[in-house]
């Protein structure tokens, strides 16, 4: 409405269509075409090369009976829930702290966000060094007199998720903080005036008034964080290489290893299709939620 | 609890000074001149603890990279070097081994440069034209393609990586730098198109109409009217793409051959190689070298970086 309508005659607009060809090709060939291709081939017994030899759900049955996949899913669930909750909690807490009209706000924000500029490979390698049992945190705390202190998540199957969380949150929580801070700043000042008039303490205002008003911001953060969690790959490769043993394997790594390492394409396709299904299970409700909101406003 | 209401009051005052722009422009309004209350101490204490969590890894990286191996074996990773040496940096840059090559990270650095420059230029050019067509030259179905594009941004790459191998092989680009460039153009398209679409639709439509009346066509309006006034958004897009492409690992490892591996892949190979004695100082120097480009961009661009990710994230 705000813009002049498109020219009526078809040929007048052909340069726009030509210019949009890369977008159309990307949308149709890559995003839809390649995804469907993988889904279709996940029902075949392709090994070294993709073959259209359909075997029904055999790949999926094998997938779900493979211990490594089970561990991958379990890890992703544990890591995902903890990373989501911790990132949201830390992000909100830091945003509230930054919102208290503090000195050096720019400085603090720069510090909190800088790891987001770094790759997961860099992040993983740094944390691998910090958590190194012979030189890192464990070594230093032992040196401070606590000689019995043990904290070796990289070699402890039960704790390796902690290492991934420490590194993952270090890299990513800054983004959530910045988005939440923008959300806090977007809240109507009348809310604050009203709560001040009513004498409600600040922490109560944040928890019971501001937090519910930030639902859309939280929804955005949840979608962004979840999308990142499902794609979790580089960090695992750089930090733990899936170890110790298979203790920190994740689905994205399963896909890569089966497609390009084990020459078992069918397994890779089935595993990646499961990842797609998981994403759709998150995206579709969110899209419906957004569309519903637009209709109401 | 006596000063419980105080942050709320301070918060409200700052809000009235600059309700929205403060994220970009920094603190506004009166400077806080109050005495340090218990609340303030908690606020700064909390921020300092988190700052330590964020800064210590950077500190450890720098310190380790400046020490010799004997000092690392004896000492504390947090302690500054007794004897500063730049040898690990030299070694990481020009001698560290990955597989058969022992010419250091410099190879990966130049590979990454050769990937990032064309991929950034191409992806932004394509996405800017897309955004322009979506705002000013809508055609039947254009919004549908755009919606697919945005949804596509959430599809796990793992679903698409193998068919893309086949496509690249068919068009003869598999293993080459240009194949990887094409992949980055494709996967950068959703976010950058969104960025430009939002920016162009915020411009006054009279601009476009006036240029139309003057007889300018599709490309004329884009190149002579819109591009010159879109410098800020181009800067944001460059920041996003250069950091994003520089930091990529998955596409690099799949779509290029070892001799053209980008820096992240090479770094991982250096650090996580099984053979040889582990030289932690060289590893940390290599890590810093790999992180240097995005970090420099981040610290130089500051608010624009925040604006880029905030625009992409909130509006998405």
From TrEMBL, chain A:
Domain of life: Bacteria
UniProt membrane topology term: Multi-pass membrane protein
Positions of transmembrane segments: 21-43, 76-98, 110-130, 159-184, 205-230, 269-289
Pfam families named among the record's database cross-references: BPD_transp_1 (PF00528)
Record's protein name: Sugar ABC transporter permease
Protein's UniProt keywords contain rRNA processing: no
Assigned protein family: Belongs to the binding-protein-dependent transport system permease family.
Localization per Swiss-Prot or TrEMBL: Cell membrane
SUPFAM superfamilies noted in UniProt: MetI-like (SSF161098)
Keywords: Cell membrane, Membrane, Transmembrane, Transmembrane helix, Transport
Domain annotation ABC transmembrane type-1: ranges: 73-288
Organism expressing this protein natively: Paracoccus aerius
From TrEMBL, chain B:
Gene3D superfamilies in the record: MetI-like
InterPro entries according to UniProt: MetI-like, MetI-like_sf
Chain spans, region Disordered: 1-20
Swiss-Prot/TrEMBL keywords: Membrane, Transmembrane, Transmembrane helix, Transport
One Pfam family it belongs to: BPD_transp_1
Superkingdom per UniProt: Bacteria
Transmembrane segments: 41-62, 109-132, 144-165, 177-200, 221-246, 282-300
Membrane topology: Multi-pass membrane protein
Subcellular location: Cell membrane
Main location: membrane
Domain ABC transmembrane type-1 residue range list: 109-301
Family the entry assigns: Belongs to the binding-protein-dependent transport system permease family.
Protein name: Carbohydrate ABC transporter permease
